[in-house]
Amino acid sequence: MTNKSIYIRTFGCQMNVRDSEVICGLLVKEGYKIIDEPNKADIILFNTCSVRQHAEDKVWSELGKFKKGQSPSGTVPSIIGMVGCMAQNYKEKIFERAPNVNFAVGPSDIQRIPEIIKRVISHKSQVTSQDLLEFKIWETDGGIRPEEIYHTGFYEDKKHAYIVVSEGCSNFCSYCVVPYVRGELRNRNYKEILKEIEEAVDKGITKITLLGQNVNAYQYNDINFAKLIEFVNLVKGLEEFSFITSHPKDTSIDLFKTMANLEKLKKYLHLPVQSGSDRILELMNRGYTRKFYFDLVDNYRKIVKSATLTTDIIVGFPTETETDFLQTHNLVKDIEFDAAYIFKYSPRPHTEAEKLADDVQRKEKEKRHKTILDAQKDISNEKKCLKK
Ligand code: SAH
Ligand code: SF4
Ligand code: F3S
């Protein structure tokens, strides 16, 4: 047992939020105290995101504030660990760029964090702080996570919990780094998922969000995603649940029919479209067309009554012309999403799209970004007025 304190800073998506809880759960079991003041922490963890250049820049800039293994105030010598997607993306290169980082651990190895911290601490007691900076551990094997790590019962919120249904992604959208940093799709055993939900409900949780990069691809033996949510709906004591994220190519009318029937399920779908141009969708390797998406949305709205719909869009994908962009703009105006998250394309390492020239100028990306943002703002405002 230890009396050391840990501060963890989380970047990126809900999957990372959940991973930070999992890490905290494992560390609390070992006696660590989780605190929210980096200046007072013995160990600082950055749980990082690589999805866009901007996400990484934020992490590098935060790390820069922790010079020479010290907290920003310069008072407490800290051990710094980089965990998550950037650790997997950069591996040993992290230590060249951020020499104040003591160890790096990829998403598939988070269960080893307590043991790694122990090794760093025991090394630290024997050496000066300068030597400590020379001591790096790099654990990024990319295997399957052991099931136990999800059962420590650590949830940040008292009422709401994120529950992982699958890790990784095998879709390889051409712009996306996730399959490379998180590995290919692995589905958790549905019995373990349900057990975790029951445990959470026993602790007072009433709402949950099921998490996966592409939840609709869930399959464990003969249990698919529609079946899984039917089971979740039956958990006693659970009041409400939802799920993210859905991939259009794996979303079906059958799923909508199931959604419509489940009284605890929030009638909400996050269905990233990414682009309204068939040419760009193909280059993105998304596996559907504009028409397919429109038909899907029609069916969703017909079958699941009073349902909300949100999306993600990338502007400025390589070779995106004004005509391609206008198709996305029109799609946004026609579909009238309840919310849309708009991103400017940035090339990511390992990906297929990285091989294409990033040929839409920054100014043009900004203009397109603003155009969609403004269109969506008008739609969202109008929807708000209608609700009143
Ligand atoms: N698995 C989810 C989320 C992936 S990341 C899904 O498939 O929707 C979240 C969003 O980031 C994506 O939907 C996409 O819109 C955006 N994104 C991913 N890679 C990007 C890149 N290289 N440049 C800009 N936006 C990107
Ligand atoms: Fe990335 Fe595509 Fe997988 Fe989403 S579905 S995580 S965008 S590869
Ligand atoms: Fe970022 Fe990794 Fe999530 S790259 S979006 S933290 S899966």
Output the helix-strand order: EHEEHEHHEHHEEEHEHEEEHEHEHHEHEH
For the largest beta-sheet, the strand count, sense and barrel status come to: 6 strands, parallel
Q: Give the CA-based shape.
A: globular
DSSP summary: helix tally: 14
Cα(first) to Cα(last) distance is: 55 Å
Mean pLDDT: 93
The gyration radius over C-alpha positions equals 22 Å
Bound molecules: S-adenosyl-L-homocysteine, iron/sulfur cluster, FE3-S4 cluster
Number of strands: 16
**Share of β-strand residues:** 15-25%
Helix content: 25-40%
List low-pLDDT spans: none
Instruction: Walk across the major sheet and give the strand order.
Output: 2-1-3-4-5-6
Class from helix and strand fractions: alpha/beta
What does this structure look like?
- Helix content is 39%, strand content 17%.
- The protein is built from 14 helices and 16 strands.
- The strands form 5 sheets. It has a 6-stranded parallel sheet with strand order 2-1-3-4-5-6, with helices on both faces.
- The longest helix has 26 residues.
- It is globular and about 65 Å long.
- The mean pLDDT is 93.
Question: What is the secondary structure topology, with strand pairs?
Answer:
Elements: E1 5-10, H1 14-29, E2 33-34, E3 43-48, H2 53-64, E4 79-84, H3 85-90, H4 93-97, E5 103-105, H5 113-124, H6 129-132, E6 137-139, E7 160-164, E8 166-167, H7 178-182, E9 186-187, H8 190-202, E10 207-211, E11 219-220, E12 223-224, H9 225-233, E13 240-244, H10 253-261, E14 268-270, H11 278-283, H12 290-303, E15 308-315, H13 322-335, E16 339-344, H14 362-387
Parallel strand pairs: 1-2, 1-3, 3-4, 4-5, 5-6, 7-10, 10-13, 14-15, 15-16
Antiparallel strand pairs: 8-9, 11-12
Helix pairs in contact: 9-10, 10-12, 13-14
